[in-house]
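Input chain follows. Return structure tokens only.
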Amino acid sequence: MEKCMQQEITRVALDAMGGDNAPGELVKGAVDAVNGRSDIKMLLVGQQDVVEKELKQYSYPKEQIEVVHAEEVIETAEPPVNAIRKKKQSSIVVGMNMVKQKEADAFVSAGSSGAILVGGQVIVGRIRGIERPPLAPLIPTEKGVSLLIDCGANVDARASHLVQFAKMGSIYMESVMGKKNPTVGIVNIGAEEEKGNALVKETFPLLKECPDINFIGSVEARDIPYGAADVIVCEAFAGNIILKLYEGVAGALLKKVKKGMLSSLRSKIGALLVKPALKGVLKDFDTSEYGGAPLLGLNGLVVKTHGSSKSKEVCNSIIQCVAFKEQKIFRKDFIREVLTLRRYPGWSEFLASFAAVLLVGALLLPALRKTNGWVVIGAAVVSLASCFIPYEKITNPWLALFIGSGSYTTFPVLQ
């Protein structure tokens, strides 16, 4: 009972009117999410009578779903800037304002991509220092998953944007997916450094010289399904083509496999034998298993799912938001650590530890003057002993400021 009372609830605002299958599949996805987990509170944003009519078909914990009325709907064909500006009571604008005002921890939508991108930047707002927020979906590979960044937000990107994408993607894979020192590759038409268009040629040396990422060079499209890199960096035009081709080939291949297995009695018997193993493989390569694409670099969490999303992908996108919140990747305190490079090697550790030296000295110097020599000798012994602690054993960044670390250069206080 006590554990339940202390359980942290993630509030997810869902655009119930967005996408090709709204509101039916969206509402069903929300119901599936709350029926599967007790730590989610759904805020279904849309036309109240329409949403409530859909909800009547299902049984679910009533306290976990709330309908938030939004009279207007932004259609896919509408100019996104005008739509966000004029339709203040649309489900997208209302939902994003809830994230901005901290009434929701996340906003999920299968609606207009353009409106979501504009609304994310205008309403939720960019984190200071972020030039262009990218969309970053997880895609299945032979080795697990890779992060494709950007897949639809910035068609005309600059080299500086791609460098930021690489940094944000590395942070995402390490913090959310638990991948230590993730590899980063840039999409190219060949492995050689001199190949590529003007953007790739300009970006390649910048990524190569960047100390914050584990850059491995160019990645050709055919190598992406084999898990050539953990973070796949590209501008949105190429990224969207990769994503859509990925999904199309997977769907066509699945249909061909099913057709072949049902073509004769022998193949049907064979299908029955391989079904358990095949089911697991197909699940791994099902893109709907991985939820939507978060819009990275905003002051709050915004997740874009496919316009054709069914309830399964909607449900997974909602559950995905819980992991994002737990890892704090979209919270300002986490971003502050990133901007000060506490999560990456660099001069920030030197500056932070040097400042700690001054602070500790200012606090201890008056006290040391009033004590006998044995206290000073004891402090000297502790400082000397710290020199013999293996740096590779130090993983906590705060402890590293005082003792040192093998991961980066510091100016250890005790030394």
